[in-house]
Amino acid sequence: MRKISECILALLLTASLAACSGTEQVGTAETGQDGSSADNAGNEPVPVEIAKSQWGNPVTGFDSEGNLTYGGDPSALVVDDTLYLYVGHDVSTNDSYVIPEYLCYSTKDMKNWTYEGVVMKMTDVSWADKNSAWAGQVARHYDETVGKDRYYLYFCSWDSTDSGKQSIGVAVSDSPTGPFEDIGEPLVKGSFTADETSAWNDIDPTVWIENDEKGEEHRYLAWGNSKLYICELNEDMVSVKDYDGDGQITFRTDVRSKTVPDSFTEAPWIYRRQDENGNYYGDYYLFYAYGWREQMAYATTDDLMENRLYFQDTIMKPSATSNTNHMAVVDFLGKTWFIYHNGSLPGGSGFRRTVCIAEVSFYPDGAVAYIEETAAGVFGTASNITALNGEVLCHEWFNNSLGDAEYPYTDMGLGSGLDRITGLDEQWEITSGKASPDDAYTVSIESNNKPGLYVTVKDGKVVLCQDHNGKMAEAQTFRTVKGLAGEGVSFESLSEPGMYLTLSGGEASLTAGEDANAVSFLISET
Prior knowledge:
The chain is mainly β. The chain contains no helices and 31 strands. It has strands at 70-79, 82-90, 101-107, 113-121, 134-143, 148-158, 166-173, 181-182, 206-211, 217-223, 228-232, 256-258, 264-274, 280-290, 295-301, 310-316, 328-332, 335-342, 354-359, 383-387, 394-395, 414-415, 428-432, 442-447, 453-458, 461-466, 478-482, 489-493, 500-504, 507-511, 521-525. The strands form 10 sheets. A 4-stranded antiparallel sheet has the order 1-2-3-4, with no helix packed on it. Strands 5-6-7-8 form a 4-stranded antiparallel sheet, with no helix packed on it. The protein is elongated.
C-alpha cells in the first residue's frame, strides 16, 4: 500500500548524515581523473535519503489495517464536502473474477483517503451470485416517505432466478457508507431486455438525476455490455417508470435499447457539465469502455431517452496492467475528476485492480482533452533521472497493445539511446522502496506513463517490468547512496548488493560502479 500523506518532492539530493551513526556529513567532493569519488574511494557507500513522491496513483489498495486490497470498477458520489468511492472487492487468485462484496473509501481533498469498509456483501443478496459484485453506482435521493436522503446502490450480478443471466439490482441505505440492503429481487432482469446477444448484456448500471427546464425531476438509469439500455426510475428509486402511462412496463417503450456509439463495450457513465451556480448545461456525456483491450471514450446527446448518442473521441489508451477499465466522472472541489482502474499494484491485473485519478479538461467547444494514465497522478511528482555523463534514463517507446498475448510486460528496454517520446518515456515517479517502505534509504522507480512498470533487476539485467506475480519487490528496490562520483545519488540494487544502476553508451545495466559518472545521477522535477 502507498501511504497517502503530505510531502513535497524537493529532489535535492540531501545528505543529512549527521543523523546516521558512523557516517560523515557529505560536502562537495573532488572527482578523480578516473571518475571515482575522492572522498568515497576505498570506503563503504554513504547512504543518503532523497525525497519521494507522495499522493500519486493509485489512491486505493488498502484496508483498515493497511493490508494490500484490490478493487475495481470505481464509482463515486459527492455528498457535501466528501467524495465517496465504491469498488468491487477483487479477491481472485487467478485469471477470473471473484468479487464477493463492495468496498467504500472517502476523501475530502482527493489526496488523503479513508477506508470505510464493506458496504454490501453478495451473500446478503438472495438472487445473486455470491462472488459477483460487478460494477455499480450509488445515488443520493430525498425520500419523502421518511423525510430524509437515502442512498441507492445500483449493481449487477449473475441472476440465479433468471436462467443464469446477468441482471440489474438495487440496494438501499440511510448512509453513503452503508450497509446497503437489497430490495429482494432484481430491478431489471436480463430476460426482460429481449434483444440480448449474451447473458451479460445487462451489466454496469449508471444513474443520473436532474430537474428539467420545467422543474420536473428525471431519474435516468442506463447500463449495458455491447447493448445499451436506458429507462427512467420512479420517485421511489427502486422501480421502473411507466414512461408512456399505459399501466405496464414494457421493453423498448419503458426500457429502451439505444443505438450504441462506436465500439461500445461496457462501463457506461452519464455526466453533464455545470456552470458556476451548479446548474447543468449543454449535452449529456456518456463515457464508456471502447473496444478490447478497453480504451476510454465518450459520446454525447442532447436527450438521453429520445435521441441518438454521437461518438466523439477516445480519451485514454488501454492500461499497461489491466485488460479492462471503468470510469467515474464527477465534479468535486471545483474540478472534474476522471476516476479509473488499472492493475498497477503488486500482483495486479484485470482481475486484481486498483483505483487511480486524473483531472478532466474541456476545450471551449466542450470536447474532452486526452487523459494520460500516470503513476504520479494529479498530486504526485514525476522526475527526470540524468547520469553525470549526461545520459537521461528512459524506457523504450511502445503502445499498450490491444492483444492480450502481449501482457504482462516484463522485459521492456531501459537505457538512454532508445526510441522514445521525449517528455513522456523519460519520466519517473520515485517512491519508497517496495521491499522496505519504512527504510528512508530505499526507493523504487516507477514509469510515470506506464504505471505499474518499474525499473527492475532481472536475471542480471535491468529492464522495465510489471510486478505481475507480487514477488518482485526486492528486484524493484534500490538503496540510495551518495553518488560515487562525489555528487548526486547512486542506486544500489537491493537484490544484487554492491551493484549499481548504470547508464552508459545508451544502455542501462548493473555494474560495480567502475565508471562513477555513469552510476551517479541528478534528479529533477519535470
